[in-house]
Specification:
The chain is mostly helical and 283 residues long. It has a domain of 165 residues. It has 15 helices and no strands.
């Protein structure tokens, strides 16, 4: 009878441990990952044509540049920007009814990018860069800073002496970068914390959405290149990030408690098993 009791307790102890492991794996692999997966990128005839032997040399590198970009990572394909039909070579580009845009005029690039980046386009147009572009037809547009096809995730390092001095002195840009620095750093630290919590099996969807909204709003703001506007609204973003930091700290505390409690239960079951075993051995 005592042997059966020990066996049951041992099984419960192992089941508790297995359940914890299974729960972590289940949350990590299913609960916190989208069921449908990421949007697939369809290359189609655009890539076939741009990698053909008779293609212009300066066009041959475009597919590889695109495949290194954040657009590719997020399922944005050639026709999403340039129009045309990627499944039909006859109307993929160059025909009036295909909707093909091709390479837009220099002044039209913000409108092209603004089809998706609406808030950023409006902020850009209201700022010094956008006004200069509209007035003269020259000056910086989206690709001046971000590039055209090998577009990477935006970061504060885009504001640098080499880039900015193509058009003007770096001094004003440097002031803008200083105004952005602390907020951008806090956002980056919060992104790292969320990744760490997700890898540990914690649920962070709400915090991810809040941080994404805050970051998008902040980056929309600084495309106006208005230093005073950025400084005046810094307190607003500081408050939002304070709230996010509090929420993330709470998740860390909850995760630590669950780990400690699981360890306590494991120790408790193990102790009970030892006590019963010792009592069984007594005459």
């Amino acid at each position: 009878m005592r042997s059966k009791v020990i066996l049951v307790i041992t099984m419960l102890m192992m089941a508790s441990l297995s359940h914890a492991d299974y729960k972590d794996v289940f949350e990590r692999e299913f609960v916190h990952k989208p069921w449908v997966g990421a949007r697939l990128v369809e290359e189609g005839v655009c890539v076939d044509c741009h990698t053909a032997e008779d293609m212009r040399e300066d066009y041959l590198t475009i597919p590889q540049e695109w495949k290194r970009s954040i657009h590719f990572d997020n399922g944005v394909s050639c026709h999403d920007c340039h129009g045309g039909d990627p499944d039909d070579a006859a109307v993929s580009c160059g025909t009036p009814h295909s909707g093909f845009v091709g390479t837009p005029e220099h002044i039209g690039i913000p409108d092209m990018c603004g089809k998706c980046h609406i808030g950023i386009k409006d902020s850009f147009n209201s700022g010094g860069h956008g006004k200069a572009l509209k007035t003269t037809g020259e000056g910086p547009n989206c690709v001046t800073c971000h590039g055209s096809h090998a577009i990477q995730k935006a970061n504060i390092d885009i504001i640098n002496q080499v880039q900015c001095q193509k058009c003007h002195s770096y001094e004003r840009a440097k002031i803008m970068k200083q105004a952005l620095f602390m907020t951008e750093k806090r956002i980056g630290d919060l992104e790292d914390s969320i990744i760490e919590l997700k890898n540990a099996g914690a649920s962070t969807e709400e915090e991810e959405r809040a941080l994404f909204r805050t970051h998008a709003e902040f980056r929309t703001l600084f495309h106006s290149i208005d230093v005073n506007l950025v400084k005046n609204r810094t307190d607003e973003f500081t408050k939002k990030l304070d709230e996010l930091e509090t929420a993330i700290a709470s998740i860390y505390d909850d995760l630590t408690f669950r780990r400690n409690f699981s360890g306590f239960l494991l120790l408790l079951f193990a102790s009970m098993s030892v006590i019963i075993y010792i009592r069984q051995k007594r005459p």
